[in-house]
Every structure is written in structure tokens, then in C-alpha cells.
Amino acid sequence: MKFPMVGSTIEVQSYKHNATLHRVWEETVILKGTTQEVIGGNDRIIVQESDGRQWRTREPAICYFTANHWFNVIGMIRNDGIYYYCNLGTPFTYDQEALKYIDYDLDIKVFPDMTYKLLDEDEFAVHKKQMNYPDEVEVILRRTVDELVSWISQQKGPFEPGFVEYWYERFLTHR
User: Domain residues for 148?
Assistant: First the structure.
């Protein structure tokens, strides 16, 4: 995989298991890009839903994608602290068009005090039947929930104190 240069912008695309486009984030600035990890930043960008609806993000965010784990993490910078939204899905790929991953419905929302909540289990159950998720995918995702909870409690990776702030400062220099 060849990555765009630091400071360039990319589109982020999420897909569903049945290969349909789920959501597109118009513009994320690359702050770090390797075969193992991509860190990007954005602020009040347009997000396009698969049904054509569009909305604009409300705050600056630092995005963390990994090639080794079945999740990505968005650190949203708000007045009352950093909130994290963790999407469970495949490791990313990048193909010159966009950074891409398959979204598997389950999400974990992390609050500034590092408490968290598992979201969308009902959506996962419905899509698992509709799209025939393989049993192996469910096993990986359940293991990934445990892994993410461990990262959160250990304040590891994107949850490390100062991680989002550090990358946000870098983002501000590349806008």
C-alpha cells in the first residue's frame, strides 16, 4: 500500500459486509500514514450516508486506523473533554481512492472519564442474519470488544493521555 503524504487529504469510506457503501467522510488530513497505522484529523466535515443524507461533524476529531486490529477510533474534541467513538470493523485498506474498511455495526462510546458503553448490539444481530455474517466474524468481533475494553482501561494507544491533543496540534499546522 502506498500512502498519501502527511498534510494531504483523503476520503474515508465504510462499507457493510455485503459490499454496499455505508458512509463517506469527505476530507481527513493525513498526520501519519504507514502500512500499520493511519492517524488523521478533520473538523466539521461533511459525512454522506448511503441513503444520500448528508450531515456535518460538530467538532474537531482525530482518527486512528490500524492494520492489525478490527477497530478504528475517533477522538472527538468537545468543550467538556474528549469523547471516543470506536467502530468495530475490519482493519483498513488504502487504494489511492480512499481509506476503506467494513463496518460491523458494534460500536463503543467512551466518555471523558473513560467510562464506556457498547452500542448497536441490536443492529449487529439484525445485520448478522440479513448479511449472513460468518461465525468467525462474530468470534473476532467479540474478542475485539474485549481488546478495546482493555485498551480503554489501560489508556493504551489512542486512549493514552495526551494522544488526541498531540495529534490535534499537528492537525492545526496542516490545515
Answer: 9-174
